[in-house]
Amino acid sequence: MNTSATPRRIALGFLVIVLLGMLLGAVTFWRILGINERFHRVATNTVPSVLTLKSINQLNSAAKSHARRFSQLDALSPLRSAAKAKYTIAQTQGDELCKAYGQLISDAQDAKLFSEALAARVQLFEKIDTIFDLVDAKTSAEAITWVMTEVDPADEKCVAAFDATTQYNLTLSDAGIAAVQQLVASSFIWIGSMLMATLFLGTLIGWSTVNTTQKALAAIAETIRFSIKKTNRTLAAISDSLQEGADQTAVSSEQLSASSRALATGTSEQGASVTQTSASLEEISAMIRRTAANAMKAKDFA
Predict the structure, then answer these.
(1) Which of 34, 39, 168, 255 has the smallest set of CB atoms within 10 Å of its CB?
(2) How many CB atoms lie within 10 A of CB 156?
(3) Quick check: 145 and 97 in contact, CB under 8 A?
(4) Helical axes 79-101 vs 108-136, angle rounded to 10°
(5) Does residue 176 sit within a domain?
(6) How would you label 22-61 residue by residue, b for 16+ Cβ within 10 Å and e otherwise?
(7) 250: DSSP letter
(8) Of the ranges 182-191, 211-220, 275-284, which one carries the lowest mean pLDDT score?
């Protein structure tokens, strides 16, 4: 087995796992951004729109009530000026909220409904202003009649127009909330599916990596065992050769020792022979000297 590719396979496996994790994170982040966008739209547009429209409606009703109260009070009553002041405050606050709502309009239908509601409000306050004109003209009875015949129907029309706009925004709010809920549910499905796929692929890659690593380690171990066996055989052969050389050296040493002993014996024998020869030569020399002496004696005797 080729083990040189094992590190690359392990690195590739970890890289794939990291990429899958990044993909899962990206999908999760994308879904969270979608949920946040939908929720932000509902929280910062639809809900404030509904609250603003209800506040305008309440201020319109309060202004009408203060105008009615003004028409019912005696001309000398100190409460009349207070009722007129409260009416002015309610009208002013309503005007400010109407201007603020212009920035909260969601779409063309919302703009159309709000435009109709503004027109109804303008008509309502025109009729309410007539109440003050009638009261100032000392015709309180006509003012009361005007309230019932003109102001109340105009107020109902204005309330209905603002209620229609409010209902449309509530419909948008419900649709937005439903979209958020659907997005959350689909996000769970997306993220769950991606998580399961990531876990499955990660497990598969991990198993493949571990299996490849085990095979590589087994191949390395087998190679090491084979190398050890080969080395042991080589060492055994070397040991046998050394033993054979030692045996041959021992035999040669014994032969050399025997030769040395034989040489020593021969040398000793030659030494003895030389000694014997020397002794014989000395005896011969003595005999010669004796013969010479005898010859001299014979000569002298002759």
Answers:
(1) 255
(2) 12
(3) no
(4) 160
(5) yes
(6) eebeebeeebeebbeebbebbeebbbbbbebbeebbebbe
(7) H
(8) 275-284
The pLDDT score that the predictor gives to residue 289 is: 76
Quickly count: other Cβ atoms within 10 Å of residue 82's Cβ: 14
Which of 19-23, 42-46, 94-98, 240-244 is the most confident on average? 94-98
Structure tokens at 91: 């009208």
Total domains, the chain? 1
In a domain, 287, yes or no: no
Q: Is residue 95 part of a domain?
A: yes
Residue carrying structure tokens 């509530």:
170
**Phi, psi angles (nearest 5°) of residue 5:** -90, -5
Pairwise CA distance, residues 168 & 104, whole Å = 13
Residue 29: domain span: 6-205
Cα–Cα distance measured from residue 146 to residue 144, given in angstroms and rounded to the nearest whole number: 5
Reported as a pLDDT band with limits 50, 70 and 90, residue 43 is low
